[in-house]
Amino acid sequence: MIRLCYLVLAFLYCVPVMAQVAKMTDTSKIFKAVDIFLEPRDGMNGFKVRWLNYLKETMKEGRLDKTIYADHMFEVLVAKDGSLLERKSGSKDLILHDFLRVQKKWKPGIRSGLPIFYLLKLKVPKELFDQVAIEELVAQEDLVKQELLKE
Question: What predicted TM-score, i.e. pTM, was given to this entire model?
Answer without folding.
Answer: 0.70
